[in-house]
Structure prediction request, 563 residues.
Amino acid sequence: MAVPVRRAFFFSIFINLLTLAPTLYMMQVYDRVIYSRNVTTLVMLTGLVLGLYVLTVVLDFVRGEIMANAALKLDQTLGERLFDLVFDASLRRLPGGANHALADLRNLRDFLSSPAVMAAMDVPLALLFLILIYLINPVLGHFSLIGALLQFILTYVQERRTDPPLKQAGAAMMNSQSYAHGVLRNAQVIEAMGMLPVLRQRWQARQRHFLRFQALASDHAGSGMVVAKVVQIAQTSLLLGLACWLTLKGMMAGGGSAMIVASVLGGKVVQPLVQLTSMWKMVVGARDSFGRLDKLLQEVPPRPNSMRLPAPKGHLVADGVVAAPPGATAPVLKGITLQAFPGEVLAVIGPSASGKTSLARVLIGLWPTMVGKVRLDGVDIHQWSKAELGPHLGYLPQEVALFEGTLAENIARFGPVDMAQVEAAARVVGLDEIVAALPAGYDTEIGSDGCFLSGGQRQRVALARAVYGNPRLVILDEPNASLDEAGDTALSQALLALKAGGAAVIVISHLTSVLRVVDRMLVIQEGVTKLYGKRDEVLAVLYPRPKTGEGGPGSTAPAGGGA
Prediction:
């Protein structure tokens, strides 16, 4: 990034020098043409200055292209890293501006090719013009320096006045946008229960909060820009007047030409600062975006390169696992121990809020453990590269998430679509008959989040995605939550097929319909293991049969039994 900036600054030197061309042209016309009345000289001077104008435009265009390419390079350098960073921040539930990181990158990219950066490059060159004024006359140099210091003070005051409301406006804008996105995600519930007017008012209150701070910042920026413009215009005229007075007093040589040059140079000394002041909102916005990105890059380091490992066989072991949601300190899992073997199905059951979904996220490697480890074939599953391990895992979360694209692309996890495996996965979960009824079959577009599918269809598509490619470990969190009786039957057949294929399967469900195909059971309550073992042994403890002769349901004792 430093190389393009240096190149652009190099062009800025010549651009600023060439901006003196109109002044020099005017001086030559007055000094040579008017007195000599030589038309040839006028034509040559005019042609020369027009050529300099063209050169100035070309150099300015090249400088702009250099900075535009630098902005694109910044996007190429950070874009992929920030996308992964936002993803990791979402996994870790980091507070702050993670969700706005890509917008911050766009702000920086736009800033790099903006006039504000060009003005910042011109600020050091203003020192050159100030030196030239001192060479013309030290008094004019002192006066120009005072004007430049005054502009600097105005810029500093501008920053102090606009920075707090701009920061508050930025935070309020993020809050308003996040609230609006949350409302849009739950549009169906809001519409069904008539909640829109109230939620709209709550959003408008946040929006008014944002607009109030933005208006305050704009007022401060506008007033500061007006004052800066007045100082710039006044300095140009006052320098001309001062130069004239010095000439009349015999304290300055060069006559009218020197007066004009000093006046023009005085305006150019303060011009970059005036431009920066007029675009201060953009400067502050870019600075804040850079600060947020820098903080986020430090909080979420790049994923380390991991050693390549052989494909897993599917033996999963959790040893005394204590875990909490990312960012939390209170554990929701307290010493869970289990094993899942290839070719077997482990069922995890328990009441609501017992930690079943948290356990699924830890077992699949999404959440780290506080104590204990989850190992797949002896390797810590949380540390295993997900890009390498992912094809060997199948995961169905409690909240089904599909993506805009075709059915085949969603089932194939948006990798290379192997239609044979797509169709095999669809058959395993009983989705093939549903697909056959669709006009475009597997090429059917399902819309954002699968909005063109019913709840049961979305569940089956997500289940087909989980079993695609014959994974070695499959974790299903409430897979029958949206399934009808036919879907429930298809789920049982899918579990049997996964067992037959040698996969280790963990199914989390509050329904007992899947228990007939499971081999082991884990019962948890409030994050603690209550029962763990073979299915029949656990069921015998959960639902003990009454002894013969005892009353109660299932009793074989005769009604009205003996003495």
